[in-house]
Amino acid sequence: MFKGIWLPVITPLRAGEVDIEALQRLTDDYVIGGIAGIVALSTTGEAALLRDAERVAVVQAIMEVVANRVPVFAGLGGSDTREFVEDLRGLENWDVAGFLVPPPAYVCPDQAGLTWHFEQIARATSRPIVLYDVPHRTGVSIEVETVRELAEIDNIVAIKACAGERFKALGQLPIDLLCGTDEAFLDCLQAGGAGGILASAHVCADLLRDVQALVKAGYGEAASRLFKRVKPVLRLLFAAPNPSAIKAMLALDACVLPETRAPILPASPALVTQLEFARAVLDDLRAVSPTR
């Protein structure tokens, strides 16, 4: 289930409200385009800034349009483990395939506390759980030995890892490794990663798939050459708080409006100009990708 490129889908906005029509159109396009799975209520989806009713509407809209064609995971978040469990039980009503679960934010528990946190969540559901190690947002890392211990729980099956220095060690554990830092995608694959949950898949999922196909086929040098040319675009996509640049780039093709929810602000005019050039770079790369 956890191989390939997964999309943490944005939440399109229009005049301050969730644009359900745009969300469903966008999601359908990515499913048709071959995305491996969808993550709803992700950081890229501005989940922390959505009201409860909006969160329900987003999940419902995504589930309706996906219609079991690919797995849909829901992101959890917050600081209180008990609230994680409450949210999980509510989301199960929409029959999501599983959950992407980070450490509790801000409170910074030790590793024993993290183990307790994930154990409570795993016991609350029979559905698969993907750990989300994102220390720059939560303030705490899930250490390798903690992941090793958690991997013994039947429904903890994968980890979305953002700290590249731990890819090699994580790749040796009996748990699927998914990349969570777009610029480090090739490093993750070379460490044994099965794929990635990558915001940049909004604009270059096909090229990321090409990189993974080359690695899998043993063409490491070709994969490195292609990824080296994609990497400057990935940097641009995170030159502003996520998902400002991604929404701006999608707006160039009128897929969505570039609107974000404050305090995340839209991309600057200067960045939009750079993104216009980046779009042309991606088109050129598609023409010369060795997998085409």
Topology:
Elements: E1 4-8, E2 13-14, E3 17-18, H1 20-32, E4 37-40, H2 52-66, E5 72-75, H3 81-91, E6 98-101, H4 111-123, E7 129-133, H5 135-138, H6 144-150, E8 156-161, H7 167-170, E9 176-179, H8 185-190, E10 195-197, H9 201-216, H10 220-237, H11 244-252, H12 269-288
Parallel strand pairs: 1-4, 1-10, 4-5, 5-6, 6-7, 7-8, 8-9, 9-10
Antiparallel strand pairs: 2-3
Order of helices and strands: EEEHEHEHEHEHHEHEHEHHHH
Largest sheet: 8 strands, parallel, barrel
Query: DSSP strand (E) fraction?
Result: 5-15%
List low-pLDDT spans.
none
CATH topology value: TIM Barrel
Indicate how many domains the architecture comprises: 1
Q: Give the radius of gyration.
A: 18 Å
Strand order of the largest sheet: 1-4-5-6-7-8-9-10
Number of strands: 10
Shape: globular
Helix share, percent: 40-55%
How many angstroms separate the termini?
25 Å
Looking at this structure, what is the CATH superfamily?
Aldolase class I
- Please state the structural category: alpha/beta
Number of H- or I-type helical stretches: 12
Reading off the top of the CATH hierarchy, the class is best stated as: Alpha Beta
Which CATH architecture?
Alpha-Beta Barrel
